[in-house]
Amino acid sequence: xxxxxxxxxxxxxxxxxxxxxxxxxxxxxxxxxxxxxxxxxxxxxxxxxxxxxxxxxxxxxxxxxxxxxxxxxxxxxxxxxxxxxxxxxxxxxxxxxxxxxxxxxxxxxxxxxxxxxxxxxxxxxxxxxxxxxxxxxxxxxxxxxxxxxxxxxxxxxxxxxxxxxxxxxxxxxxxxxxxxxxxxxxxxxxxxxxxxxxxxxxxxxxxxxxxxxxxxxxxxxxxxxxxxxxxxxxxxxxxxxxxxxxxxxxxxxxxxxxxxxxxxxxxxxxxxxxxxxxxxxxxxxxxxxxxxxxxxxxxxxxxxxxxxxxxxxxxxxxxxxxxxxxxxxxxxxxxxxxxxxxxxxxxxxxxxxxxxxxxxxxxxxxxxxxxxxxxxxxxxxxxxxxxxxxxxxxxxxxxxxxxxxxxxxxxxxxxxxxxxxxxxxxxxxxx
Amino acid sequence: xxxxxxxxxxxxxxxxxxxxxxxxxxxxxxxxxxxxxxxxxxxxxxxxxxxxxxxxxxxxxxxxxxxxxxxxxxxxxxxxxxxxxxxxxxxxxxxxxxxxxxxxxxxxxxxxxxxxxxxxxxxxxxxxxxxxxxxxxxxxxxxxxxxxxxxxxxxxxxxxxxxxxxxxxxxxxxxxxxxxxxxxxxxxxxxxxxxxxxxxxxxxxxxxxxxxxxxxxxxxxxxxxxxxxxxxxxxxxxxxxxxxxxxxxxxxxxxxxxxxxxxxxxxxxxxxxxxxxxxxxxxxxxxxxxxxxxxxxxxxxxxxxxxxxxx
Lengths: 431, 311
Hints:
The complex is a heterodimer. By secondary structure, chain A is of the alpha+beta class. Helix content of chain A is about 45%, strand content about 15%. Chain A is built from 20 helices and 13 strands. In chain A, the strands form 3 sheets. In chain A, strands 1, 2, 3, 6, 7, 10, 11, 12 and 13 form a 9-stranded mixed sheet that branches. In chain A, strands 4-5 form a two-stranded antiparallel sheet. Chain A has a two-stranded antiparallel ribbon with strand order 8-9. In chain A, α10 packs across α19 (about 390-405) and α19 (about 390-405) packs antiparallel against α20. Chain A is globular and about 65 Å long. Chain B has helices at about 10-55, 70-80, 80-115, 120-130, 135-145, 150-155, 170-195, 200-210, 215-225, 225-240, 245-250, 260-270, 275-300, 305, and strands at about 55, 65-70. The longest helix of chain B is centred in the first third of the chain and has 42 residues, at about 10-55. By secondary structure, chain B is mainly alpha-helical.
């Protein structure tokens, strides 16, 4: 090949042509290499990095004589996952058949026609009575089912028992944000939350607002014309919590940049409280010694006497509407969300089942303390979902923009953010 | 080096010369024509597409609601405080980083020009940062400034050990600009080095004999003779700096109001999949870059043809 190119030296046009032919040849070889060599068809499943190893094993288990399930990894960051999924699905990329979707993105994708409808034989698995709490709602859009839940996630309050004891808090009873911020501040500890400008911060704000009995928005089917209701007493209560935390010594030094990972060391170094997902028990990397001091309780109440509405999340499996073989992809989706897969994810990775009955399976009762399992399920049942809207992403970005950094939050934030969210949805403001 | 001052009423000889140069120009135009056509095919289509899209309210996730809104997107942009805030940020980053880079880059260029021993080693080590991919250098600096595992806080005597550089606007901007300056100063010094090579040693010698100090030689001889090289260096860097994206994306994700215009454009078109508004912002960004280029060429009063040594 090289010699044939060299022979053209001195004739630039011909050389360019040869180079193009060469490049095309390389591309062709690569394309052929993409095909499966076993003769079976390949289904490509894009997974988020949580529980990747377990998902790879599940993919192998769910591969049949008819198809192999190939696993591709999405980025770590939820918004980056959404961007990559949306761009591929919008382009009707047939190189993607199954996709792990954060629960908040399903309505948007379903509304855009990116996802195949789940046929009746699988809807029981997706939305049956055994599906925990509000998770069944996350896979439905306009009374149709567009995804199957794989695992459910919720935030509980993790705390150091020694600090709670020192502060004299009775953790068996519901506690409020006020109480834990004061307890941490008085005892040299901190309260860890997700304060970075990202989806985790929007989840925190939603939990605070719902915990005070309010909602960020209602009439969500109206899309961009939804009623924004964050400017309410509940919104004020949520703002008061953030204002108090960011002005308190209990606020962590990197509060405006904190995420699920950065809050982990603070809990064990200085003691205190941490709002975080279920993975902490298995995946925080705490030592045996540290785990002895680790306590857990229901998410704190925004207002004393009101029930807390902890953040809920998780992963639903959607099927690309443009997939080459929808039937195979749907069958594969049902398999990778089956009970075995949910139990494996919970036992190996701390990602809890979306089905309520599985919390009693022996694999889980062996892997977790009974009270922690009960707390996870209770927290999921009690949890407050983020607005189920086709324009949720815009809402979330508008909230993040108007409520960040936490130190800028004041009593006027709810009303200014209502105006801003409305302007953004109406296309009258940039976000 | 001054622009030619040929007056009208040229001699026949001059006339012949301009005939010749006109013919050369025509030949030149013919020679570049295929390249121009190819470039138009590759670049003009996306540009026209962006212009067309910018007249729509169009989201990738709700394709059915696509609606022609005329110049509404532009009205929204130019009346939006976030756009002006981001433009302010971008201009500030451009002015501050390019000025500092120019000073440091000039010093580096003088060192690289005059160095006698270990010439290759010194030149290479000065150029290393430019060989690092921007995203990598942004991550490196982000880790360096991190409150959790960075070393900057321990090195700086007047900074608390747990100071969060990315916690507020000012300190975030400092971190972003330091990363940008570290990364691109070598490029500036490389272009300035090429300019330094143009300065004739004879003139410098003459100035020295006349008793000019080092500063006088720098200001009266070296810099004026490097004007076109300086313009090219400043122009390239200013345009690059105006389109800053990677450092901000990696270090703050636009938090604490540290967004640039490119970042805003990215968010509208990629993150929000708002193709109409994203395209309108791209058009605005493109026009701003053109404007900056035109302004710089005017400020430096450099004839580009002259800079290439054609006249």
